[in-house]
Amino acid sequence: MTRFVLAVETSCDDTALALLDFEKENVLAELVSSQDLIHADYDGIVPELAARAHLRNLPVLMSRILVEAGVGPEEVGLVAATRGPGLKGSLLIGYTFARAWAQARRVPFQAVNHLEGHLVSALFDQGLRRFPALALIVSGGHTEIVEMEALGAYRELSSTIDDAAGEAFDKSATLLGFDYPGGARLAALADTLTDSRLSLPKVMANRDEISFSGLKTAIARLVSVHLMSEPQGDSIHAPGGFLRSDVRAQIAHAAQRAIVATLMEKIERFWSRRSYEALYVAGGVAANRHLRACIENRGWPAVFPLHHHCTDNAAMIGLAAILKLKSQYGMSLAGLDEKERTDLSWSQSPDEVVSRWPLDS
Ligand code: KG4
Ligand code: ZN
Predict the structure, then answer these.
(1) pLDDT (tens digit, 9 = 90+) per residue, 116-171?
(2) Ligand 1: distance of its center to the CA of 149 in Å?
(3) Handedness of CA 308, 314, 317, 318 (dihedral sign)
(4) 69 CB-near residues (< 8 Å, 6+ apart)
(5) Are 330 and 125 in contact (CB under 8 A)?
(6) pTM of the full predicted structure?
(7) N or C: less crowded end of the chain, CB within 10 Å?
(8) What is the dihedral of CA 195, 197, 200, 202, to 10 degrees?
């Protein structure tokens, strides 16, 4: 039986592997090695360090995942890897590793667009595959609103002209003294309050494009107004001074509310233009509880990925490859004839590592 799919995702700083069942479209095992500790000292991802860590991690994770899933290498019938978009060095390491592994074993190889992975990440667990749908991808590197006409037929409606939503969370978190990437910790602090007396301006309202850089400047100003040169009472260290803990929580609350309000306004604009069957939300920020609550309160038929499939993972890359192949070749990997196998392995040039919209992998 060769019905198992090995998927590799290394577009940014997480090394992720997954083993899936082609027919059942479920996950047998998945592993993610986070590099947060490596990059924390630099307040951002250092591409060269990320690529080197992928190179160290991949062989270790590869042996572990086969053992965890109880699958032998000879049972893998398809290898999938992220081709782009992402950090070039990181992509090259994971993509080349996966391709070489596939070629050495004469197994078909399918390149996957990272954003398509995020788009299908909400489709795992339910029979809910309704189209046309609107999709919001909100991660550390991307903020896009996409129209999904069907699986494989996507159109970008809007994207950020500067920072991504996750970046807005992370940069605000850094200003508040959290280690990078502090988005989830800022959100947890914000959720401890039900309201904040501080407010932030709405940025780029009434436009299709998304922007967070103005908000970031407003948050930086708000922080600087409250920065103290010496600690007083219950206070924490933040870049450039000290902040009272209660003020820090208030700013976190205001920042989260403003970022989510920006996203809600943009979804509303596009949702009102056409009748959609579903709203798919994906990417690391899809884990944000306030965003989920606002979307649910609004009553949209929203579908979110499982929590651990919001952030970068290889399961979504495997699922995207499975769905693509099923739509092209039918239901079974064993059904692929020799010519189709060869086409699959050689149709993607290793030079085309970075792909952009429209999705072309
Ligand atoms: O999808 P992802 O793993 O990476 C990219 O493809 O970019 O998303 C990571 C991003 C980070 O910016 C992280 O701070 C943010 O998602 N994030 C959150 C939450 N959990 C992760 N932002 C807000 N609230 C959260 N609960
Ligand atoms: Zn991502």
Answers:
(1) 999 999 887 655 689 999 999 999 999 999 999 988 889 999 999 999 999 999 99
(2) 26
(3) negative
(4) 4, 19, 28, 29
(5) no
(6) 0.90
(7) N
(8) 60
